[in-house]
Amino acid sequence: MKHIVVTGAAGFLGSHxxxxxxxQGHQVTGIDNLSTGMIRNLAEVMENPHFVFHEADVxxxxxxxxxxxxxxxxxxxxxxxxxxxxxxADAIGTIWVNTRGTYHxxxxxxxxxxxFLYSSxxxxxxxxxxxxQPESYRGNVNTxxxxxxxxxxKRLGEVxxxxxxTKQRVSVKVARIxxxxxSGLRNDDGRVISNFVTQALTGQDITVYGDGSQTRSFCYVxxxxxxxxxxxxxxxxxxxxxxxxxxxxxxxxxxxxxxxxLTQSDSRVVFLPLPEDDPKVRRPVIDKAREILNWEPEIxxxxxxxxxxxxxxxxxxxxxxx
Length: 322
Known about the structure:
By secondary structure, the chain is α/β, with parallel strands linked by helices. The protein has helices at 12-23, 84-87, 91-112, 148-166, 192-202, 221-233, 252-263, 287-293, 301-321; strands at 3-7, 27-32, 51-55, 74-77, 115-121, 172-177, 180-181, 206-209, 215-217, 219-220, 241-244, 249-251, 269-272.
């Protein structure tokens, strides 16, 4: 049994990862300051003897004190707001968790001799001028705009990882995660899938920003979690940056119509101005993931949306009766 630390444990990805790791028999300590994560995401594991929840802020150095007398084998550093709605509302906090927080968790990995996986993002590529995006692409990121607090903080987090890998010999892996979704994505998250499904099920207008021609690649959470765990387990992946995402690309307008069709909704599709610095295209090259991790996604968008819609529908029914 390994002792595995997951930061951002009450968030979307973190809670799914915690449940998966506990299901495999590991001892898991979850850390979250609950700024955007929700404790209800961990309801299924809170009473499990293999899980400990530690409400703490990883930007503070005393977070490490919790582990003084404990052995730690692996650290998944997932803590950070990921939706523009939330990271723009707390821009400085977003910068700190991806810089100070990353530093503190890397220090914990160094002291404990633990493996370390950093959840970076496809936003590291900015509004890309190369399409699709391989890991070798250095990006086109605006440092002076509303998304920079997330994009640039994640990029600097990667630099911390590089320094600890090359100078401190910590076993570091950097996952650049592309759009991920599932039934567990909170319906007020503000991202495309959660917005569209919630709007369609409640009869609201489905809001498309811009003309809907911008593209995204959507990865169902089960595939993502499987990719992260394969990444952590593979020693050949030490010191690597690897894209984790689904290479099938859709326009936002296509997704809006697919959600409308699958929900059998009468909602109108309406168009609003495109937010500043919103990327026009986004699709990962996953050759490295296939070759090094023997990983690729298995769940297509239509199947993933059906699962998501069913869960959101049941959630909304509970809210109506509650």
